[in-house]
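EI: anyone free to look at a 88-residue chain?
SC: sure, send it
EI:
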Amino acid sequence: MRVETVQLARLFDKARGMDPARVGAVRAGAADELEGLDGVDQEQLDRSFRVFCALEDVQQESRAKGLAVRCWPEMFTEYGCAACGRWR
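SC: here you go
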């Protein structure tokens, strides 16, 4: 087993720079499976989908079998969403 560290600042930068079309596709997939997405804070929802995409990239780049994310407090205070949301 090998542990690689990715700084949260790098993850947040990846999320902020994520292709809007990709984020939209992820949102559309989630909307097919979840009800009520229109009823939540849309800015936080967008950030959540962006960080989801960024985490996918980190996983693919590192070929990791699993990820652990330090959520509190940086995910909230520096990025503005939680890392624990996942629908698939």
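EI: Helices lie at 8-16, 20-33, 42-62, 74-79.
SC: 👍
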